Amino acid sequence: MNPDLTPHLFGMTPEDLLAHAQKAGVRLDIGEARRTMARVLSYKPDEHPNVRRPLRKTLFGELAQSTTRAELEVVERVTDDNDGFVKYLFRSPDGSLTEAVRIPLHKPGHFTVCLSSQVGCAMGCVFCATGRLGLTRNLKAWEMVAAFKRVRDEAPGRVSGAVFMGQGEPFHNYDEVIQAGRVLSNPCGGRISADMITISTVGLVPQIRRYAREGHRHRLIVSLTSAIPDKRRALLPVAGRFSMEEVSEAIREYAAVAKGRMTIAWVVMAGVNTGQDEVDALRDLLGDLKLRVNLIDVNDAREDGFKRATPTELKDFLNRLSVLNVPLVRRYSGGREKHAACGMLAAHQLAKDATELDGE
Ligand code: SF4
Q1: Strand 197-201 and strand 73-79: pairing?
Q2: How far apart are the CA of 272 and the centre of ligand 1, in A?
Q3: Active-site amino acid positions
Q4: Across 79-99, average pLDDT
Q5: Most exposed residue of 67, 95, 200, 290, measured as fewest CB within 10 angstroms of its CB?
Q6: What's the 129 CA to ligand 1 centre distance in angstroms?
Q7: Which residue range(s) make up the domain with 287?
Q8: What percent of the chain is modeled with pLDDT above 90?
Q9: Which three-class secondary structure state does DSSP give residue 151?
């Protein structure tokens, strides 16, 4: 059996397991499939003592021969005492490194998990450490679920959500991310509500339109970062593939089916995208929509990299944006003090590996 091709239980819903069992000639009904998945993805498998003995035999016997439950290895776990973020660096069976972050929510004892969708990223956003790594490969749904499970199982409270905002562009790995969302939101899987899962995209137009057509319940965020075409192309090279008008039309298609507010993310960079020209361009582009704008401080570890806006610059930007009359939410990308902001752990580990190799 080729381990790369072996179906992984973490990537399956009960219905997927049932279909797999039928193909593999294992007798299973949907109730047993549900109980099996609830046990496989349970926080504490012993919470499911009602798994009958014959099912245990199926689970650990016949199905074990045609599926795998391999876990990710935790390479590093970094806690930032200042903000409570816990960043995980995982190693997949093929050696690939990815990250996930446990993020404390305002409500004490509640957390969400930021998940990666790819090893590296092909989008090449100029302010992003992951973008500089380039793309190695897409993550499988099971790897995203395994990362979620590990972070959730170690959380000192309730994990009630997941955001695909880690390494990678989720819509560049559309099918596996949607499958991970199915498993995470299944009552016998990750057991989080579908609308507590958020997918963030840099604006891949065909996928936004497909997502709107398919009517998924997960929240969608489009990271705009600039509404001025030339500047956006310079910051997010992928913007060269789709015009501002195409992005705007795709956002409108999604907003029409999602009905609630459309969230736009804005990575704030000092002296780059905080001016009146940006506010005017954003108003012309999407000012007629019900919007929410998430402002995210840039995290660029390079000496000569992009800088965070000063408090004064940020305040001025917020004042300018207030004419749009939309909720403005400052999103915090934690772990910066420990080299653990987005993309930084994997970049550090790769640098460490390279140094070790050089030293051999
Ligand atoms: S910001 Fe997101 S989409 Fe852009 S390069 Fe980084 S990981 Fe990829």
Answers
A1: unpaired
A2: 18
A3: 99, 342
A4: 91
A5: 95
A6: 8
A7: 73-357
A8: 69
A9: helix
